[in-house]
Design brief:
Layout (H helix, E strand, L loop, with lengths): L2 H5 L5 H21 L5 H12 L3 E2 H8 L3 H14 L2 E2 L11 E4 L1 H18 L8 H18 L10
Antiparallel strand pairs: 1-3, 2-3
Helix pairs in contact: 2-6, 3-6, 4-5
Length: 154
C-alpha cells in the first residue's frame, strides 16, 4: 500500500486545502447570511462599489459565472433594491448596472462580519501565520488558476 494511502487523505496537501476551502466557504456563507448576503451577492456589490458602472457581462466574467446566472443574480439584487439596471435599452446598447444607496448600506453592514472572518484567531492562526497563509494561497491560486480567468490581487 502506498504511504499516502496508509496515511489517509489528510496527508495529501491538495486534499487538506480543498477541505479547508470548503469549511471556510461554509463559514463565510453562514456569516454573510446574518446580514442578508451570499458570497456571489457580496462579490457583485464589491465590484460595483469599486467601479460604479459595469455591465452584466462584465460582472459575469469577473465572477466566472454564465451570463444567464448573472442575469438571475442581478434580478434578485434589483428586487432587494441593492442595484439598479435600467430597462428599455435598445439592442446593442450598453446597459450599466449601478450600486444603490441601499446596496452601499448592506456592504457597510457586511464590514464587521468580514472583519471577524478575517481575524487570524477565527482561523486558528497567529497574525504571522495568517499573513504567510495569505501569501501562499495567492501563489497557489496564481499557479493552478486557469489562464483565461482574470486575476485579482490583494
Amino acid at each position: 500500500m502506498p504511504g499516502w494511502v496508509a496515511a489517509g487523505p489528510e496527508s495529501i496537501p491538495a486534499y487538506a486545502l480543498a477541505r479547508a476551502g470548503a469549511a471556510m466557504t461554509a463559514a463565510f456563507t453562514r456569516r454573510l447570511a446574518t446580514v442578508g448576503l451570499r458570497p456571489h451577492t457580496l462579490s457583485v456589490l464589491v465590484h460595483l462599489a469599486r467601479e460604479p458602472a459595469l455591465t452584466s457581462a462584465e460582472l459575469a466574467r469577473r465572477l466566472d459565472v454564465t451570463p444567464q446566472s448573472m442575469s438571475a443574480l442581478l434580478a434578485g439584487l434589483v428586487d432587494a433594491g441593492w442595484v439598479e439596471r435600467p430597462s428599455g435599452a435598445r439592442r446593442g446598447q450598453r446597459i450599466d448596472v449601478r450600486l444603490t444607496a441601499a446596496g452601499r448600506r448592506v456592504l457597510a453592514d457586511a464590514g464587521p462580519v468580514l472583519a471577524e472572518l478575517g481575524r487570524p484567531e477565527t482561523m486558528g492562526l497567529t497574525a504571522e501565520e495568517a499573513d504567510t497563509l495569505h501569501a501562499l494561497l495567492g501563489r497557489v491560486l496564481a499557479t493552478v488558476d486557469t489562464p483565461d480567468r482574470p486575476r485579482t490581487t490583494s
